[in-house]
Amino acid sequence: MASTGSGEVAKQMAGRKLPWSEIIAFVAIAGIVLAGVLAGVLAGASPQGILTNVGFYASIAVIFAVLALGFNLQWGYTGLFNAGIAGFYLIGAYTMAIAITAPAPPIVIGGIPVYPGHLGGYSLPLAVGAILAMFASGAAAAIIALPALRLRADYLAIATLAFASILQIFANNLQSVTGGAIGITGIPKPIEFVSADAPFLNAITIVGIGSAILLVLILLLQFMAESPWGRVLRAVREDEEATMALGKNTFNYKLQAFALGGALMGLAGALFAVTLGYVSPSSSFAPTVTFSVWVMVIVGGSGNNRGAIVGAFLIYGMEWLSVQLKDLVPQNPLVLPPDLQGFATFIVLIGVVVTLTGLLYIVTGWGLLKLRMWAWWLTVIASIVSIVSQLTQFVVVPAYGFPYLIVLPISLLVYFRWVRPTFMQARAVSASSSNESLPPGPPSFSKRTPSMTPRRPVGVTVLGVLAILFGFLAVPGGLVVLAAFGFIVRDTIFYIRIMIIGVLLILLILHRPEGILREKKRVLG
Amino acid sequence: MAQVSGSEPSTPGRVWSRWAALRPTARFRRQLVQASIGLVIAVAVISALTFVFGIIILQYAMGGLVVSSIVIVAAIGLTVLYGIRGFANFAYGDLMTLGAYLALMLSLNGLSLIWGAIVSFLVLAIVGILLEVVIFSRLEGRGPVPPIVASVGVGLIIQNGIRSVAGTAEWIYPVPATQNIVIVPGLGIHPVTGILTLLVGLAFVISAHVLLKYTNLGKAMRATADNLELAKATGIDTKRVTYAAWVVSCSFASTAGVLLGLGTAVTPTMGFDVILLIFAAVIVGGIGSPYGAMLGGLLVGLSQEMSVPFLVWLERPDVIGLQFGSAYKVAIPFIILIIVLIFRPWGIAGRRPAFARRSFFIERITRVIGGERGAIETSAGEANGGR
């Protein structure tokens, strides 16, 4: 089943001209930037301010791209799962900061220590600092990998996660080295501008330097991946025992790949220190950074450098957009008549449902029938949650569940009366047809037979793109409206972003472990 | 699950009594000797520390026992799932948070906290089965990494869902505020956060022991954790065992979350903050071994709390003048974790896997110390998810 099916699919793929997945990815990035610009215009920022902001987006996205490239080298090529990306990032940032800043003595005002000072103040050139940062991170990666690399992947994940959290404790408390909770400030810029539009010029410089580094890195990594060395790494990923049997010292290769990946993360940290001008043990090095980088690499497809970069721009774009949207929300909530409150919540939920169905379609390739099932289930779940939270009065901000007292029975009725029977019928038909045409073969990994996933028609893909674009307008807009009228706390926008990252992690690992930029594989591993 | 009691040959004519598991095997006797040696060493260390630091060290030991009992409840739940499903559930801390918030929600709505905890126990069991059905059953046989990624996704959704619904404020359980019961001057224990937590922890340890040793389900669970293929071939319904593991794991998580919330406050990150402590306990004890998890939990909790006087001593300017010394107590379990990973990656109570590769250096050191050699057995984790 698998072999004949994949042959047919390969022929179908060969006939297709347009790389729809990539087009969708770029449309999504463009949508993010446009939405951010729109938010800036609505907030009344100057054109130069908006451009500076977009430049900030590009520079941080480049940093995340370097992180994603490092993780891709470790996981995508070699199969070493690193859960402590934030730790190596932190080492790089602090090493850079300590190396290139001017000396900063402790500040004591009136007997009260205001700033504890920090180690270093060596005022080294930027390039030297970056090399030191790479070296420190790479060495740390090698040391943490030594005991853990001999074991299974989950030991390595736990050890690196523990390492990252220890580092955060140290950064917070080892004041004489790291400057404590305040961190290290006054990190010099690559070029010091004095004119009025210095922020804009700085953003442009940083973006230029970052893009140049990224370009060099991707060329280098692509070359390394196709060299004999990279081939051995991929062999280790596919089958370590077989590689060992061929006479390769797999432990050394794994150690090299892990240390190199760690060094790249250190470089990202160095770039981060220069971009922001300060480092502090805040949310910049929280575990969420690690998880975001995972999503970036999985979206692009593990083992795909270009995909890692696209994923970084896409996923960091979401974070950037959520910051822009939060700025758009006024501090004091506006007043809305109570009749409209439930209605506004309902509109946002519809937007969420439509976007999620579009995303589901893009990610999983499920047909419209199954999409409708999901849409109905989402409506039902949302209704139940709203009603329960309304009844229990637990939530801090009321959720206005009463409209759902009407929505819930209707959606249940429609689901059981029309949607489910149709789906069952379709499944029965497809199951019987697949039984006739194909002999029982080995169980396929994704439980999806080729006959159940027909070729994606162009029109439906366009619909999916439209759904995502609609989502970029409806969901953020709706959230901003809700926050502006005080129904949800402003920070909820951030939490929803992280929840979307969680949903993406689960959906991608379940249905598209090869990433959305690649053609779907029928059988993995 | 390391200890499979039926190591004696079963003769066909013999009727196995229900309490056959109680018969001391050679393995059990060896473990008993090891445990008593450990106990003697622990008592000696604690009395020596009391002699050096005074009665305050006993107070820290008491705090360590309370922390240990929470960690043990959580670690048993995590390790049961780890052994049977063969992956590290990174969402475990957030499942604990979810349990704590469910109990809080019910107790804010007029139910007593105990009923809230019981309802959240049941709800989390259902959540566990749903997680297995919807997500994790589809990731079976794809190695250890995809389930880890998916579980991190689940954790992010739970944590941020709680943040957006209940806010980020700290909540305190409505328990009566009482004074510590003074045992000896300078040594007291709180009736709710101290004694109740200890008792609940003890009850969960005993119930886990009874479940695993004296019920058919427990036997099936241990067999599945030991060797999945063999268990299937024996006719064990491994699907049912998997669901049972999820139920045990998630309901233990809920109780551990409530206990954790009793001790401090209920916040959206309370579970995620202790997940590494629980992982340390699980790995130190040996993955998949509930008895190892109990031992590991005790070791991790006690060492974390009892390191405080030492760290405070390091804060003195004439020593090394460490700032915020007691903040580093969280790092102590990780140091133990790293040491265990280097010398005994299969855990202090686990069994050495057949193909464990060690470097020459470590081989020599362990031989000198007198570690056991060449036991040709497969550990639970290797058999389930590894290649």
Question: How does this structure look, described?
Answer:
The complex is a heterodimer of chains A (525) and B (387). Chain A has two domains: 45-285, no CATH class; 338-511, no CATH class. Chain A has a two-stranded antiparallel ribbon. In chain A, helix 3 runs antiparallel to helix 11 (250-276) and helix 14 packs antiparallel against helix 15. The radius of gyration of chain A is 25 Å and the shape is globular. The model of chain A is unreliable at 1-6, 393-399, 436-456 and 521-525 (pLDDT under 50). In chain A, a hairpin with a 2-residue loop joins strand 1 (107-109) and strand 2 (112-115). Chain A is built from 18 helices and two strands. The two termini of chain A are 16 Å apart. Chain A is mainly α and 525 residues long. With 387 residues, chain B is mainly alpha-helical. Chain B has one domain (57-384): ABC transporter involved in vitamin B12 uptake, BtuC (Orthogonal Bundle), CATH 1.10.3470. Helix content of chain B is 66%, strand content 2%. Chain B has helices spanning 26-53, 56-85, 92-108, 113-134, 145-166, 191-214, 216-226, 228-234, 238-263, 270-285, 290-314, 332-343, 360-369, 380-384, and strands at residues 181-184, 187-189. Chain B has a two-stranded antiparallel ribbon. In chain B, a hairpin with a 2-residue loop joins strand 1 (181-184) and strand 2 (187-189). In chain B, helix 6 packs across helix 7 (216-226). The two termini of chain B are 19 Å apart. The model of chain B is unreliable at 1-8 and 371-387 (pLDDT under 50). Chains A and B meet through helix 6, helix 12 and helix 18 of A and helix 5, helix 10 and helix 12 of B.
